[in-house]
Amino acid sequence: MSISVAIITFNEQHNLARTLAAIKPIADEIVVVDSNSTDGTRSIARDFKARIFKEDFKGHIAQKNSALDKCTMDWILAIDADEVVDKTLASAIREAVKQEGFDGFKISRKSIYLGKTINYMWQPDIHLRLVRRAATPSWGGYDPHDKLFITSGSGKIGKLNGILQHYSYRNLNDHWNKTVKYAHISAESYAKMGRRFRLYKLLFSPLFAFLKNYIFRGGFIDGIRGVFAASSQIVSIFLKYAFLWEIEHRKKQHHSKKERR
User: Fold this and answer.
1) Neighbour tally for 2: CB within 10 Å
2) How far apart are CA 64 and CA 71, in angstroms?
3) pLDDT tens-digit map of 128-183
4) pTM for this prediction
């Protein structure tokens, strides 16, 4: 059975070669939807014989669905440009697509953070990523926290051995910049879905997330990296609700100005 790999990119030259080198032995087709990168991203994709499509960024979900739509093989492996299939996972994928009766397979992901694998923070991190194209896969959820679903077929899902290595942050500066960026995107998504700001969420949700991940899930075992990761969750969730308040406050101000006219 043939495999398409679907990836979206924007200025990913520091990640993409590593990602494509790992999946090239199992990919019959590589589809890259690029959001007008200004670095060497598309050049790297061409080196790996990818089918490249330049499109304005429409949001994580819409962009990833666009990549799915362009895949032509029997199976689709949907990964990010900063994710690397390890050798065990690559072998498992080859065997999985030979099996009958399954419409998809979940994959475990672990972050490579500041040069070391994180084993407790951000865990468990298991996602549906390998899907049969005939099962009509589609990305849903909310930006930037997208989730892959299958919408037809038997719905039978398996789980693969191996790890999807996630090189999500180049350094602490990159981590904190993305923390702020994704918190703002999440707030905008909440506002579009009609979710309202609540003060108790701003005050208590960050603390709950810290206790759940750093204490109860053993993030402290990851050492100083666990401290950094857990602290970023506090900031991320606090900012998400703070930005949501700001969005609602701006709307109220706008409505008040219109009423005074």
Assistant:
1) 12
2) 11
3) 999 999 999 999 999 999 999 999 888 899 999 999 999 989 999 999 999 999 99
4) 0.91
Residues linked to residue 113 through DSSP beta bridges, in sequence order = 116
Cα 184 from Cα 238, distance rounded (Å): 11
The dihedral through the CA atoms of 198, 203, 209, 212 has a sign that is negative
Phi-psi group of 149: left, alpha or beta (phi > 0 → left; psi -120 to 50 → alpha; rest → beta): beta
Nearest to 16 by CA among 38, 39, 45: 45
Question: What are the tens digits of pLDDT across the range 3-22?
Answer: 999 999 999 999 999 999 99
Question: Which residue in this structure is represented by tokens 């019959």?
Answer: 28
DSSP string, 138-189: EEEEETTEEEEEE-SS---EEEEEEEEEE---SSHHHHHHHHHHHHHHHHHH
